[in-house]
Amino acid sequence: MNKKNAFSLQSITKSFGGLIAVKDVSFAVNEKEVVGIIGPNGSGKTTLLDIVSGFLKPDAGRIFYDEADITRLAPHQRAGLGIGRLFQDIRVFNKLTVLENMLLAQRENQEEGILTAVFASPWIKRKTGEAVYNTRYWLDFVGLEVKENSAAENLSYGQEKLLALAMILARNSQLLLLDEPVAGLDLRMKEKILGLIKKLRDSGKTIIVIEHALDFIFDASDRIVLLNGGRKVYEGAASKFHSEINIKEAYAASYAQI
Question: How far is CA 40 from the centre of its chain?
Fold first, then answer.
């Protein structure tokens, strides 16, 4: 039986002035699949993720999620449909506890910024029952259950990344967009996040991950998309990547310019 596409890009193009950041990129992601996007700096990876999550609008092309055209939807509308993004820069409220961050993540019609954290305090205190159960489930999943009453600013860098991941999971996100999830982490934390990604896929999540750590992304991904100069230059099974393409040649031209 053919797998169902959970998400697809069709001929996505994006320019900034005269610079083409993404050019005619198309690919689909199946349900319960991890697709890794790799490429040199400046190849269009983060721009593409910004387009997928709604922070940038494409100049051309269409985006489909669960068979619906979401090309013109705002980021909060996409989040409401089940698309969650883990950013390179960790987005948690440092002065709130881990538990409060998790409860705040489940608030409908979120607005980012410090005012949200300040004025959400009474709302957080009223949250009980299902939201707290959901919070503790995902904290246990990522291994932060013993930190629920700790201020986020007291977490290690790796623990902050785990909290940010738990926050998007608490919103029942089904398509996870992970932007360099292991950047700056030690080997132990990289292995932990690799294990979490595999568990999430096996539990039914669909995942797109960008990462410069190639050993990690090959281990984590079912399929690889290679971008260079804003264009898709390869797409195929992660297990066959090295036998089908010379990654040094694919990267060389761009790295020579860095």
Answer: 18
CA distances from 16 to 19, 46, 47, 75, 157 (A): 5, 14, 10, 20, 33
Distance CA 145, CA 129 (A): 17
C-alpha triplet 51, 182, 156: angle, nearest 5°: 115
Angstrom distance (rounded) from CA 9 to CA 115: 35
Segment holding 224, helix H or strand E: strand 223-228
pLDDT tens, residue by residue, 162-192? 999 999 999 899 999 999 999 999 999 999 9
Rg of the chain over Cα atoms, rounded to whole angstroms, equals: 19
* pTM of the entire predicted model: 0.86
Ramachandran class of 211: left when φ > 0, alpha when ψ lies in -120 to 50, beta otherwise: beta
Residue with token string 């607005």: 111
